[in-house]
């Protein structure tokens, strides 16, 4: 876990008439990810990104770049940086808890980004009071404040010795689940397939530990860079085989270990059948041999003339 370098925001956490000075730190970081630069394939030199006028092709310097809201094709309302800045709500640097709720009242699809919330300077006692009070009553706080130039709604929860403040997406930022799922066909699964699925889920029950999971993409990139340095090439991977409807039941049985359990029985049955056939063949051959001997014994010998 990457350590927080500095506070992203400092202000006050207020519930009722109790106020505690607090500091906000990012809880996640992408600094450990592998990053790339864009280079010229022919020369190996880094390339620079420039903004150019779409009509003239001339480079537009930073001071000449402004925001534009498109109202029609190639027609924009132009806003300069100071005008955009004036639209930012005034802030008194206070994160006000407006209500206490149970965490499961909020669909996790609304969760945006987590931050560590810690007491700042002399606010430890009021901070601890809120943390322990929420922990004992098993609730979280819904608060709002101006964070990073926007009004943000935040879910505040106890976390270890501190608090976690998770910014929440607004309703207009979350796509409708109904629209996303409308192409999924209506069907009902029951009987053996559903029983096997429940059995497999039961077999796979466990707990989550972040240390047990790694970023396969980052590992693959590291291996790719290493292979390139050594003049090697990574093997191509075949795509996973998709379970077809007529193969689904057999795939479930294999997942549940049914095939593995029944395979020895089938091998035993086959071996038993083969052994039985061999025994029958030996018995038949012995009977035939005995019959041949008896026939020779009962046949009179011709005398020589």
Automatic annotation (TrEMBL):
Residues 254-305 are annotated as: Disordered. Residues 270-289 have a biased composition (Low complexity). Pfam families: Ku. Residues 290-305 have a biased composition (Basic residues). One of its GO terms (biological process) is double-strand break repair via nonhomologous end joining. InterPro entries: DNA_bd_Ku70/Ku80, Prok_Ku, SPOC-like_C_dom_sf. One of its GO terms (molecular function) is double-stranded DNA binding. PANTHER family: NON-HOMOLOGOUS END JOINING PROTEIN KU. NCBIfam families: Ku_bact. Belongs to the prokaryotic Ku family. This is Non-homologous end joining protein Ku. It comes from Sinorhizobium sojae CCBAU 05684.
């Amino acid at each position: 876990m990457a350590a927080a370098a500095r506070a992203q925001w400092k202000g006050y956490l207020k519930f009722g008439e109790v106020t505690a000075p607090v500091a906000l730190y990012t809880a996640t970081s992408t600094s450990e990810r592998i990053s790339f630069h864009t280079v010229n394939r022919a020369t190996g030199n880094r390339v620079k990104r420039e903004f150019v006028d779409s009509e003239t092709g001339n480079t537009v310097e930073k001071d000449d770049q402004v925001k534009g809201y498109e109202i029609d094709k190639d027609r924009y309302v132009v806003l300069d940086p100071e005008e955009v800045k004036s639209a930012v709500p005034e802030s008194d640097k206070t994160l006000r808890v407006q209500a206490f709720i149970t965490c499961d009242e909020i669909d996790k699809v609304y969760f945006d980004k987590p931050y560590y919330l810690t007491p700042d300077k002399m606010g430890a006692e009021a901070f601890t009071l809120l943390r322990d009070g929420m922990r004992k009553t098993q609730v979280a706080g819904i608060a709002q404040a101006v964070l990073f130039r926007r009004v943000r709604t935040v879910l505040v929860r106890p976390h270890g010795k501190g608090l976690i403040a998770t910014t929440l997406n607004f309703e207009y930022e979350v796509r409708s689940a109904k629209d996303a799922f409308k192409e999924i066909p209506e069907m009902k699964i029951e009987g053996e397939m559903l029983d096997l699925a429940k059995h497999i889920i039961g077999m796979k029950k466990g707990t989550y530990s972040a240390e047990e999971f790694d970023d396969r993409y980052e590992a693959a990139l590291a291996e790719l860079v290493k292979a390139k340095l050594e003049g090697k090439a990574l093997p191509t991977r075949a795509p996973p085989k998709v379970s077809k409807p007529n193969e689904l039941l057999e795939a479930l049985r294999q997942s549940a270990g049914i095939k593995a359990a029944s395979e020895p029985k089938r091998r035993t049955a086959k071996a038993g059948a083969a052994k039985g056939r061999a025994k029958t063949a030996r018995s038949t051959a012995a009977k035939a041999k005995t019959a041949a001997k008896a026939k020779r014994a009962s046949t009179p010998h011709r005398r020589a003339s």
